[in-house]
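One-letter codes give the sequence; the integers encode the fold. A sample entry reads:
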Amino acid sequence: SAAAAVAGVSAANGLADFPLSQDQIVQLASAFEGHPDNAAASVLGGAVVSWTTLSVDGKSQPKYAAVPIKVHKDIKATALVPDFHASTEAVRRVLPTEVTHIDARFNV
């Protein structure tokens, strides 16, 4: 869905008289998609760090931003694909509703 959001924004950007910057494309695609980490990776490629800035008063729209990060050449991507299918909804039902501080800290 992130790639589709980026494709739509990029297509519109190509037709516009005033081209958007990469930052603006990240903002728009993230707003459509809801996940700036996915949208930013689709715009910038490679590895990214993304974040969302929320207004204190809650009245303004979130601001999404991202920066590419350099990955060491020895780090290789690996995809682990299970031999079964499970919906996101079903998998989330079996996850605990809370994570202990120790577990969260270990995972970070």
